[in-house]
Design brief:
Strand order of the largest sheet: 1-2-3-4-5-6-7
Distance between the termini: 15 Å
Largest sheet: 7 strands, mixed
Structural class: alpha/beta
Order of helices and strands: HEEEEHEHHEHEEEEEHEHHHHHH
Radius of gyration: 24 Å
Oligomer: single chain
Number of helices: 12
């Protein structure tokens, strides 16, 4: 028969380990198709796709030069250049560089493209600090070296509703924050078969793994910004649905139908509405989960992750500080069979955690969980 101490060892170890890991940003993940070439093609009018299979980049051509949307990865630049030139355009004629948002997979190549083309780099105001810090000012990934990229000077700071004009092309920047503070959805009109079509290039409506929608000290208004973003996206006139990743708008399947469809398969207002509705539901589900983190579900991992989201237990492990809120919840619920890691001093003030104990548990947690 196992001793009481042995019975509690695994849940205590799990609680500390899960909360500790939840408190730190995870490493960036790169999809296998991000650097996989994809045949460039004309979407409609003067709008072309010049991205990879997984990362979307767009070229808007005019008689006075071209606009490029999304520089993608540093390693994407030769691929984007080859796509532009395969379409018969000169890469050096790119005069304006725009992005969907300040994450490395959409803007890490900006410094190189500016150097090659001399293009003017235009970025939404709330993302400028992140771009010019090379990702270090990002609220979620700023302290993750693998998510950083060459810092790049911004030539024009954009604001919600600003127009970017080049030749006869006019693009409108819509602030759709949440995914990043300055996430930008681009709209424009193109002429296709004698008719003006409304194009929407979605920045990103996704809630990434690890995003804190509640009590986020680095981004206090994040949930409100997501709400704003969905309101904006639902208000936009839409014919042609595009986005920062081809997966948003089912690019490959639509591309395969281009030569057989009677109308452009990228004209898809219904697909746009379904995509936005799906992403909004995902956001609301995650928000409700984080707001109700002490509700249903009492397994070890769920309970400890909820505590970690509270700026309490994870904060104690990271900074060595105990909060009364965490202490009282532990005493009430005893999650994971946990015992308090601190003792309340006679003065009543918060004290430093028993960090040697925490370190010991972290070191032995893997072994304990495998038993």
């Amino acid at each position: 028969m196992k001793s009481v101490g042995a019975m509690h060892a695994r849940p205590i170890a799990a609680c500390v380990l899960v909360a500790f890991l939840a408190g730190a940003p995870g490493p960036r993940a790169q999809s296998n198709d991000w650097l996989e070439p994809f045949a460039p093609f004309r979407i409609a009018g003067n709008l072309y796709y010049v991205g990879s299979r997984g990362l979307a980049s767009y070229l808007v051509t005019t008689s006075e030069g071209h606009v490029l949307i999304n520089s993608s990865l540093e390693a994407s630049v030769p691929l984007i250049r080859a796509s532009v030139e395969k379409l018969g355009f000169k890469f050096a004629d790119v005069k304006v560089l725009l992005i969907s948002h300040a994450h490395w997979d959409h803007n890490a190549g900006s410094a190189a493209i500016k150097t090659i083309t001399g293009a003017k780099y235009m970025v939404m105001d709330a993302d400028v600090a992140v771009v010019e810090s090379g990702g270090k000012a990002d609220f979620q990934y700023g302290s993750t070296p693998s998510s950083q990229y060459p810092a790049t000077n911004v030539d024009r700071v954009l604001h919600d509703g600003d127009e970017v004009k080049l030749g006869d092309a006019v693009l409108v920047a819509h602030l759709t924050p949440g995914h990043t503070k300055g996430c930008t959805t681009w709209t424009m009109k193109v002429q296709e078969v004698g008719r003006a079509r409304d194009v929407v290039i979605v920045g990103s409506p996704n809630v990434n793994a690890g995003y804190k929608l509640v009590n986020n000290a680095a981004y206090p208004q994040i949930a409100d910004d997501y709400e704003r973003m969905f309101r904006v996206l639902k208000s936009l006139p839409i014919d042609i649905f595009l986005g920062a990743h081809g997966s948003y708008f089912d690019m490959e399947a639509k591309y395969a139908r281009m030569n057989t469809a009677t109308a452009s398969p990228f004209i898809d207002p219904d697909g746009y509405k379904k995509f936005i509705a799906d992403r909004e539901q995902a956001f609301r589900t995650e928000l409700a989960k984080q707001r109700g983190r002490y509700g249903a579900g009492n397994d070890v991992a769920t309970t400890c992750l909820r505590l970690a989201h509270d700026h309490s237990f994870a904060g104690c492990v990271r900074r060595g500080i105990r909060t009364n809120a965490f202490h009282s919840r532990v005493r009430r619920s005893r999650p994971c069979g946990a015992v308090p890691l601190v003792r309340k001093p006679r003065t009543g003030r918060a004290v430093v955690c028993m960090m040697p104990f925490v370190a010991t548990v972290l070191i032995t947690a893997a072994a304990a969980l495998s038993r």
